[in-house]
Design a protein that fits this description.
heterodimer, A: mainly beta, six-stranded mixed β-sheet, globular, B: mainly beta, seven-stranded mixed β-sheet, four-stranded antiparallel β-sheet
């Protein structure tokens, strides 16, 4: 039972365009969401997060949007760069706890 | 500034053998997490420790899996006996305090033949 779902296993975008990665969740107790980025043969690295009291958080080229009513969040990367090619994991936690529930990841490929 | 260090990076062993994965968290970090990554299920939390004490092991799949943290700078994840379905990438992560971002090691790719 996947409580955090990333339904697109892969996404291909041209350099300079916007990349939009999507994530859905089912557990209404989740109140904090994170995105991690992972290169091959390396561990995931933290990218950006958002609390459920907000609907948007921005950090440079990366913006995360949260739609609580739809239980949906998205990560926007603008402009996309070849170095952004990686697997992106969405994660969620509930009630200030330490347990993260991850999605299965989306492989982003940014083409020249 | 050293990150989370895991060893070995790769492990290939035969079914039935004991496997021990090792992790050194970032110095000063109070929390340590063990995850397993598979294609079908993504990253799953197996167990986590706070100040060397196991807090939640509900993700540990079976009694064949055990984890210890004898001191603040070392943890092990042991599988005995190992089975082919245990093949996956195992990650260790640590965080400074509760609710801080987790920093991951580069993982151990485990193959059970």
């Amino acid at each position: 039972d996947q409580q955090v779902k990333q339904n697109s296993p892969s996404l291909s975008v041209q350099e300079g365009r916007i990349s939009i990665l999507n994530c859905d969740y089912t557990n209404s107790m989740f109140d904090y969401f994170l995105w991690y980025k992972k290169y091959p043969a390396e561990g995931p690295t933290f990218l950006i997060s958002i609390s459920s009291i907000k609907d948007k958080n921005e950090d440079g080229r990366f913006t995360v949007f949260l739609n609580k009513s739809a239980k949906h969040l998205s990560l926007h990367i603008v402009p996309s760069q070849p170095g952004d090619s990686a697997v992106y994991f969405c994660a969620a936690r509930a009630g200030g706890g330490n347990k993260l529930t991850f999605g299965t990841g989306t492989q982003l490929k940014v083409e020249l | 500034d050293a990150g989370v260090i895991q060893s070995p990076r790769h492990e290939v062993t035969e079914m039935g053998q004991e496997v021990t994965l090792r992790c050194k968290p970032i110095s000063g970090h109070d929390y340590l997490f063990w995850y397993r990554q598979t294609m079908m299920r993504g990253l799953e939390l197996l167990i986590y420790f706070n100040n060397n004490v196991p807090i939640d092991d509900s993700g540990m799949p079976e009694d064949r899996f055990s984890a210890k943290m004898p001191n603040a700078s070392f943890s092990t994840l042991k599988i005995q006996p190992s089975e082919p379905r245990d093949s996956a990438v195992y990650f260790c992560a640590s965080s400074l305090r509760s609710n801080q971002p987790q920093h991951f090691g580069d993982g151990t790719r485990l193959s059970i033949l």
